[in-house]
Design goal:
The complex is a heterotrimer of chains A (about 300), B (about 375) and C (about 300). By secondary structure, chain A is an all-alpha fold. A two-stranded antiparallel sheet of chain A has the order 1-2. In chain A, helix 2 packs across helix 13, helix 3 runs parallel beside helix 8 and helix 9 packs antiparallel against helix 10. With about 375 residues, chain B is an alpha+beta fold. Chain B is built from nine helices and 20 strands. Classes of the chains: A mainly alpha (about 300), B alpha+beta (about 375), C mainly alpha (about 300). At the A-C interface, helix 1, helix 3, helix 4, helix 5 and helix 8 of A face helix 1, helix 2, helix 4, helix 5 and helix 6 of C.
């Protein structure tokens, strides 16, 4: 039928583009990671799966398991991401909740202000903090005046007083700062979808406010929370620039830095590709989970 | 009036394993107001969409004035549709909406304007031409949708629950108007609805559909008075269904209801074990002991006040419950729970139904009852 | 996408929520208000300060030091328009954003319409592929393109073309999400109505679908522009040298050095461009959706972004 052929034709250019520059590009990662190097240590991709060489992949796996060279980086990455998404949840949930339910006549303004960080480049937002946290910056001075730096030092979270001098805590706070807007907005949307009458029904049936929150609102917003957390954890797993800007020290490097160093810095592009394959394999589950919730949400709206 | 003859032959539509339309054959002569009536999921809208060209039949033929058109794309078919939710083009004015299709008919500018004005006048939206659809009321939007299709002067107009989204008052007004327009233009209307009142008041003929098949197709009065099946009886109005055994007796039937033998004017071909039907308004209540043919003793079990009539439920001596409509006209006696009565089931109105076991399951009859109520 | 539902919820909630007063069990929890405003200050103040520093008279980038525009125009060696490296970064960023808008928007619109209607073999996987770039960490994506352009497509090689291709690839998925969201709201009815009234398929797309998609197209252009101009990772991986440096790359390279407020001025200009685009798109959006029953277009634009984060 002509109608049907037209839809396929319309999709064709975009699909071809994505096929070449997304699917084949990822296949290039696999071909390089399962390829070899020439005498100049330049990668020789093996495009034919029959000639794949698992040597570098094995090396990559050995480097990221306990005892391996990159094992501490893997552990650090997991800790940083976990800490940052817990931070995002603790900050983001109350904010999204307030914006969706209690902002009243300020609602429009609050929503605009919550969206604003989206339109500011991530790098610029990090750059702003490098200004603030420089030893003579306003941020450092305020933190020092409030004795927060000595408090953090006594807790063992800060080494010395230079916030930009290779501090893990700075990287974690920066990750939280950088990604929390991306958590708040989808959560806001999902909280906003909860019918006010459901909450009123809970109250009507005798639930006091805290209980109606724990038993009704929180369970109903759980899909939104999970999707939001996945949405911010994924880019964190590939982040290397936050760490470079806020610390730069190898003692705080994440898996993204390792890949970046292999690919852009040193000669070990093949090993870098192999680690990228491993990272993608781990993240794929989360990516598909998020896409499924996205589609479900769209399906629900279509109905 | 020679144009607008629609013939469906063995039309089938499957979606995977689901059979939406299961072999429909019918003939709609030019100028007829034909209605497909049925509950949701009965296949009426799918049939309409196949005639319009939005769905391709799995099997069967669609003929317009004798020409097969089931593989013609919708924009090349001479039939037009009024959509359930109007599907107006929100980015165009009312006049632009109405004139939309004329562009594809090689109609000159002046001619197009004349036709748009005329049809807008006919559906009484003459002064709304420059408005946007979002600025109109539901009834006005409905008229725009109608004008947009009629301006193309189609021999056949398809209407998919066109009044479904309107409130009851407006619905009545538009029913009258649709009928007027249809008679004035002598266009074939194929009308889909689940509303029995709409079907009965407007149509020349009605096809009652169920599970992708036509259950019965006839003029409204015939459908109401002489339904063939329990489903049709229940879907159009309310009906008392009695489990009976019917025997042929000359030119009529003898109906065994428990120990009582009743006469029914149904044709003797209907004889067999099955169901008999009588409308509540034909059930007459007489004083206890009244004598004569087709009288069954009973006891009033419940009386429900309905305003202009009372709904009296009587337990018959054989155990069946039967509903009688007693008009609140000041002349009929008042009934109370526990009154003993004689129930008169007139032979002319007691109808033996043609229900093969797979057709008349109690379940669907119940559903239809709720739908009709 | 979610806006229609969100709006309804919002208006219903606003209408039905009782007035708050002391002692009312419904009273607004003050600590929530506090957290929210503290968060908003925390999220925006550093950036505002960075902008303020761009207008410094002195050379300090960590403290406020007088007022001037010298870091934008005045200083002949170090201002944005005096330092060719800064100026080139700005032009290059705008060039890439323009290219990305011109290519990704039409491709994404066609892909969205196609995917929405196409129900054949292969439409399932195609749907996944069209959305996967939304959630793929940029690093993985950038490594892939880098390796592609240094091996299989080494005839194209690294540089402006590769960067533009990269930007188009990741922003196309956003266009798909936005346009499909709008298509769902429009519904198939109007297209069927147009076909029923005699419009052939291409006329349906041209006269019905595209005009109705106009607000989504405006939003798409905006988001592609913003994604491209803010992008760092893909630009960096596919850059071939100084002349392919973008603004975020310039900021990244100099942030930890001892930069002058001109770097802040550069970042400020970039932000200005983004906000201008935002205002423009918002205006178009409002104009195109006038008459449609909806609340604030702000929240419409807000919901655009919930498709994915970068």
């Amino acid at each position: 039928m002509t109608r049907r052929r037209i839809w396929g034709l319309l999709a064709a250019p975009g699909m071809a583009w994505l096929g070449l520059f997304f699917v084949v590009a990822f296949y290039a990662v696999i071909s390089v990671g399962l390829g070899n190097v020439n005498s100049l240590y330049q990668p020789v991709p093996h495009w034919n799966p029959l000639t794949w060489n698992v040597g570098y992949l094995t090396e990559a796996i050995q480097s990221v398991i306990p005892g391996g060279q990159n094992w501490p980086v893997v552990v650090r990455t997991v800790i940083y991401i976990a800490a940052a998404i817990i931070g995002a949840l603790l900050i983001g949930y109350p904010v999204a909740y307030y914006a969706s339910r209690h902002a009243g006549r300020w609602r429009g303004l609050v929503v605009v202000l919550l969206i604003l960080p989206f339109w500011i480049s991530y790098i610029m937002r990090m750059f702003a903090w490098t200004n603030l946290l420089a030893p003579d910056g306003y941020g450092s001075k305020i933190l020092s005046a409030l004795s927060i730096d000595s408090l953090f030092s006594s807790l063992g979270l800060l080494d010395g007083t230079d916030w930009l001098g290779g501090q893990g805590i700075t990287v974690i706070i920066a990750l939280t700062y950088g990604y929390v807007p991306f958590f708040i907005l989808p959560l806001f949307a999902s909280l906003d979808r909860i019918d006010q009458r459901v909450i009123e029904a809970a109250r009507d049936l005798g639930a006091p406010p805290p209980s109606s929150f724990w038993r009704v609102i929180l369970p109903m917003s759980k899909p939104g929370i999970l999707a939001g957390l996945v949405l911010v954890a994924l880019p964190m797993a590939g982040d290397y620039y936050t760490q470079t800007l806020m610390s730069g020290s190898p003692s705080t490097s994440m898996i993204g830095n390792t890949i970046n160093n292999y690919i852009q810095g040193g000669p070990d592009k093949v090993l870098g590709s192999a680690i990228t394959i491993l990272l993608s394999a781990v993240l794929l589950v989360f990516m598909l989970y998020y896409l499924r919730t996205l589609r479900r949400q769209q399906g629900a709206e279509a109905a | 009036m020679s144009e607008g003859d629609i013939r469906l032959e063995g039309l089938v539509k499957n979606y995977g394993d689901v059979v939406a339309v299961d072999g429909i054959s019918l003939h709609v002569p030019p100028g007829e107001f034909f209605t497909m009536l049925g509950p949701s999921g009965c296949g009426k809208t799918t049939t309409l969409r196949m005639i319009a060209g939005f769905e391709r039949p799995t099997d069967g033929q669609i003929l317009l004035d004798g020409v097969e058109m089931s593989s013609t794309p919708p924009h090349k078919r001479r039939v037009n549709t009024v959509f359930q939710h109007y599907a107006l083009f929100t980015h165009m004015t009312v006049a632009e909406n109405v004139g939309f299709g004329l562009r594809y008919q090689q109609v000159g500018k002046d001619e197009a304007k004349r036709r748009v004005d005329a049809v807008m006048e006919m559906v009484q939206i003459g002064e709304l031409g420059e408005r946007r659809p979002s600025e109109l009321s539901g009834g006005q939007q409905q008229r725009v949708a109608l004008a947009r299709a009629l301006v193309l002067e189609p021999p056949v107009l398809l209407l998919d629950e066109p009044l479904g989204a309107l409130d009851a008052r407006l619905r009545l007004d538009l029913q009258v108007e649709l009928k007027r327009i249809q008679e004035q233009l002598e266009v074939t209307f194929i009308y889909v609805t689940h509303d029995q009142d709409e079907a009965l008041t407007m149509s020349d003929r009605v096809a009652v559909m169920k599970d992708g098949k036509i259950e019965q197709c006839d003029v409204p009065a015939k459908l109401y008075e002489e339904p063939d099946t329990a489903f049709v009886a229940n879907f159009l109005g309310s009906a008392n269904l009695l489990n009976v055994e019917a025997r042929a007796a000359g030119d009529h039937c003898e109906v065994m209801l428990g120990n009582f033998t009743l006469r029914s004017n149904s044709s003797p071909e209907q004889a067999g074990v099955g169901k008999a039907m009588i409308r509540p308004e034909y059930v007459k209540l007489e004083p206890q002991g009244a004598d004569g043919e087709n009288r069954v003793p009973g006891m009033v079990e419940e009386v429900v006040y309905m305003g202009f009539h009372q709904d009296v439920r009587v337990r018959l001596a054989n155990g069946d419950l039967i509903r009688a409509t007693v008009p609140s006209d000041g002349e009929s006696p008042e009934y109370h729970q526990g009154n003993a009565v004689a129930v008169y089931l007139r032979a002319a109105n007691l109808r033996v139904l043609d229900d093969s076991p797979e057709k008349a399951t109690g379940e669907t009859a119940d559903q239809a009852d709720t739908a009709a109520a | 996408m979610s806006a229609a539902a969100a709006e309804q919820g919002a208006t219903a909630a606003a209408a039905e929520r009782p007035r708050f007063s002391l002692g009312n069990p419904w009273s607004k929890p003050r600590w929530l208000t506090g957290i929210t405003w503290v968060y908003i200050l925390w999220s925006l103040l550093p950036v505002l300060l960075a902008i303020r520093v761009a207008f410094n008279e002195g050379r300090s980038r960590t403290s406020i030091d007088g007022w001037s525009l010298k870091w934008f125009f005045g200083d002949s060696n170090f201002s944005v328009f005096g330092d060719p490296t800064l100026q080139d970064a700005l032009t290059h960023s705008l060039l890439l954003a323009g290219l990305a808008m011109l290519i990704a928007t039409p491709l994404g619109i066609m892909l969205a319409i196609g995917l929405q209607r196409w129900r054949g073999r292969g439409s399932g996987p195609s749907n996944v592929v069209a959305l996967l770039p939304l959630v793929t960490p940029e690093l993985v994506f950038a490594v892939g393109l880098f390796l592609l352009f240094t091996t299989l497509l080494s005839t194209i090689g690294l540089g402006t073309t590769a960067q533009a291709i990269g930007h188009v690839t990741f922003s196309m998925s956003f266009v798909v999400v936005i346009v499909r969201g709008r298509l769902v709201t429009i519904g198939p009815d109007v297209e069927e109505a147009a076909a029923d009234l005699g419009a052939p398929p291409l006329a349906v797309i041209w006269r019905i679908l595209l005009p109705l998609l106009a607000p989504a197209i405006a939003a798409s252009l905006l988001i592609v522009f913003a994604l491209s101009i803010d992008d760092f990772v893909v630009s960096q991986y596919l850059a071939s040298g100084a002349e392919t440096t973008t603004v975020p790359m310039r900021i990244y390279a100099q942030a930890r050095g001892a930069p002058l407020p001109s770097l802040n001025a550069l970042a400020t200009l970039m932000l200005l461009f983004t906000l201008l685009a935002l205002v423009l798109a918002y205006g178009v959006f409002r104009f195109m959706t006038r008459g449609e029953k909806r609340g604030s277009a702000i929240e419409q634009i807000a919901s655009i972004d919930s498709g994915g984060g970068r």
